[in-house]
Batch of 2 targets.
Target 1
Amino acid sequence: LEVRTGVGGYGLIAEIEGSRPGRTIAIRADMDALPIEETSGRRYCSRNTGVMHACGHDGHMTIALGAVRTLASLRDSISGTVRFIFQPSEETVGGAKRMCDEGAMDGVDAIVALHGWPHLQVGQAGIRSGAMMASADTFDITIQGVGGHAAYPQTCIDPIVIGSQVVNALQTIASREIDPNDPVVVTITQFHAGTAYNVIPGTARLMGTYRTLNGATREGLPDRIRRVAESVCAASRANCIISFREGTAPVINHPEITALISRVAAETLGPENVISLASSSMGAEDFAGYLDHAPGAMFRLGLGGVSPLHTPTFDFNDRAIPIGVELFVRIALRYLE
């Protein structure tokens, strides 16, 4: 195959050109790990301390490699091109953009991806048109107060108390400022302050994420977060410094590509095993970065009740691998017909 390595850092692109000209469909597999100590007890358990495939990327990669092998053997019957994108850094939602910046989507007409899903049974596929997964952006808030002795709080401006008020106040953005039909999550995930039992610190640092399915809502959230945090701090005579980092946009599945996946899944697995997902997920996926370049869709592949994603005991169900391979192969062939 024609292969490019080192794309977007550690990414790899492989192409299968058919015997006749035609369109190009891309299949994307993500590779990344998480800072979790694996306790699955498997003989193939991670050998790297504090690092494991806790989100199934090893399974995604294996499925894509299986599809490479199968489609390569069918090259003579293919009209068009299948491009395989093996993308690093999905968990930090930066790999897709780097891959696209280095030409991963040049000339691509459509793209598909899958994600293993413990909440579906092996042999099932979860399908949803439109909003599939949320955007994910992050922020840092540094509260600058006045430190001092813990016995004399009246001489201080306590950033811990103020930070606690900021955490609570930020929750009113979703509950009181956004339409209840427009899902929004504002979550503080880190709160760092202090070094001793008897000292009120001078600063506190809060870190968190905000997520939404709506592009316009996403655009307005930084101003809302800034207004709430600065107002709470000002009321207590403190200052705050806020910074934002843009992550990934929402994954919006294209209706035509979603319909194609649904038809192929129904023919392959049976209509009863194609599960129409009732709601979007507030989890994020940088697969959204590819959708700026071509229509595409992501679906969920049933793993059959294994441990939840992002846990020390998660283990990708090998029985799902050939099912994922067959779906990828049939989707690619059907699109290129």
Target 2
Amino acid sequence: PANAPDALPPVDIDPDDDACIFYTSGTTGFPKGAQLTHRGSIHNLLNLAFMAAVSSAAAAKAGVEAGMPDLSADQGDAKQNVFMAPTPLFHVTANNCLLHPATISGSRIVLTYKWDAGRALELIEREQVTNFSGVPTMSREMLMHPDWETRDTSSVVGMGGGGAPLQPDLVDKIDKSLQGGAPSTGYGLTETHGIATANSGSLYTAKPSSCGRVVPVLDSKLIDELGNEVTGQGQRGELCLRGSVIIKGYLNREEATAEAIQDGWFRTGDIAEVDDDGYYRIVGRSKELIITGGYNVSPREIDEVLESRPEIAEAAAAGVADDDLGEVVHAWVVPAANIDAKAVVAAANAVAGQELARYKVPHQIHVVDALPRNALGKIQRHRLG
């Protein structure tokens, strides 16, 4: 302190200078260094604030319509928000979508050394956590944990996260399990500095399979395999995004940058559909599509059908090479607590036969203790098999 300067030296920072380099999680390939800018990081903060305000306004409106008093203008002595970050700070979810908002709003943030559902519940009770944001499996594990009924989770107003779509049954479970809170989700990528869409509260429970509307600073479109724009409700295509939160590019990877960002549009690699209200639904990854007998099958659709059964805690479908059909569908399932393998297979086969077209029904069900995931909790389908 005795040798510290009176003031920090002036630094000339352009809004489009690199703020940091985040490495993509690499579920389908070698990680790339994404160049995040000051402009993109600030705009992500504004997006988060806007989408939260929209959700709060919708919740207040729904409450008034249900006969509750309008408390939207009476903030009183607002309590400090407490965010729990169960994912690493080298990822946009914890850093840009939790640490940045906590810093700008004077909130607290609770970090975890490693993931443990029981320990997370202990911290939620002790620190009075208001917002929990992780990958979907974390919320599911907490709801299924025996300590859920004994720990005080009444402080939680928002629970969910991103990294993968929250299954509709999990959205319903969160909504029914929280005393004064609601489910929330955000779809985004490292390449979008954080969220690209968001959905929470009553807007989310009304459309539980949707990741929400696109944030204000982004343009969006769907394209087919030839790059032509796809329009119309129910039509599916690769989601492309354009705007101030798209990264500058990949560090020292000019070819990868040119492949990902074309004419200003970032190709997410995610297959999506959009309804008449502008709500997007992510149905799978273009590189994860299973092509069986000429049919395109989204593994995410199969996952959701299997996970609708209470006997199944988690599921992941993937294609397995086949001499006749090119690929056939297999599914890997994790049993719910105290459910034996035979009951799990029976439940999986039953619901698949009822809810899926014949070519989508898994040829084989594999019962496993856990699904392969990367450091951020994302399922690595290429490791199945």
